[in-house]
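[Automated response] Your request has been received and processed.

Submitted sequence:
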Amino acid sequence: MTGAERGRGRWWRPRSLRTQLLLWLITLHVFAAVLTAWFSFLAYGNLVHNALDDQMRLVAESYAGGDQMKTPRQMDGETAFSRGSFVVQIWSADGATLRASSWSALSVPLQPHAGFSDVSTGAHAQSNWRVFTAEPGPRADQPRVQVLQNEDYRRRRALRRALLEGLPIALLLPVALLILWLIVSAASRSLRAVARDVASQDERSPTELSLARVPDEIAPLVGAFNNLLARVRSAFATQRRFVQDAAHELRTPMAAIGLQIENLRAHVPAGEATERFNQLEAGVTRAQHLIEQLLHLSRQDAPAQRSAAGERVDIEVLLRESVSQLMVLADARRVDIGFEGRTAAVVVFAPAAELRSVFDNLIDNALRYAPEGGVVDVRLHTVDGHAVVDVLDNGPGIPQAAMGRVFDRFFRVPGAAAGGSGLGLAIARTAAERHGLRIELRNRDDGPGLMARVHLPVLPA
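Generated structure:
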């Protein structure tokens, strides 16, 4: 079975509950209509058969009961076949001679036994006849009477009656399908509401789904899903606690190691020992940075952080503060950093700390990958009428093959210089998406380096 067949199911076993209900309802109605018509055909056929047999007997007795034999009224074949008129035959007492007949073209001999019998005069349906042969009269010379009726007329009459009995069910089918469609659509609205609740879940803090409007048949499934969400919340909480505890426990000893290394610097002799000491100091600095990033990440993932109240933040003021605070880091790496604002005042409604996390991490990432003596530019301007913030560096950029993974936690571009933690871009994107910002990374077209563009949301009026 192909993937497409598995997705939509076979025609007799569709995946859609609505389609299954409609399919089974159509089958049920068609079966009920056929069954009703069949039983009506049998029951009414038997009723018609008995009623017409009684009429045939009465007609025969009316011709045979008098002292003077009546002459039957003439008819044609159309009357006998389409209207089911009785064909009356008057035979001689010995049955050898047909004295009179209402339709002389019908050649059915006098039956040897009195009563009802079925006679066929040919291969087609209209050749079958129902025959009633009256008893011989009390006198030896009294003529014999025989009455015939076409069997095909009887079947047609019973069939019409059966079709009329099944017609209400056939007419009810589209109405029933429409009603079922409306009922299933109304019932499925609750399922779509559950699907919307599931789709809107925050993967870091899933909440239980409401059972208020869920059908009883689906309630166990939703309950099981809520149990799963509870376990997921517990797993995330355990993960956050572990990261927070580990980072807090490591912060103090790493700070102590950093102080010890700083105190030892004056006692390190020149030469190869100095180079090894610098490598040790860089490793400790990187570990301290990683610990701080882990603490920031755990605070960012905490539910309480996501409920922080927003405020009106002037993006230009925020960017100037970020650039000013990171100036010390830029000077230490001999990188020229600058800010340029070429648009009117841009205001974003969000927590200032979250926005600072976005831009600080992007600027810090640019400073880390810019070469010594390089340039990092922070620009606030508009593109196609929308405000954006560009953070540009003239570093090595990012290989196209790794561009899809740069926002993954702990991912570092192969061959990148030591010092990064692989968390900065992940922290920036998480904070940005939470407040309607979008980060776009691409290599610069005007030379080497990377451009990180932040698309700012429009402040509601």
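Summary generated for your ticket: The chain has eleven helices and 14 strands. The CA atoms of residues 84 and 153 lie 6 Å apart.
If you did not submit this request, please reply to this message.
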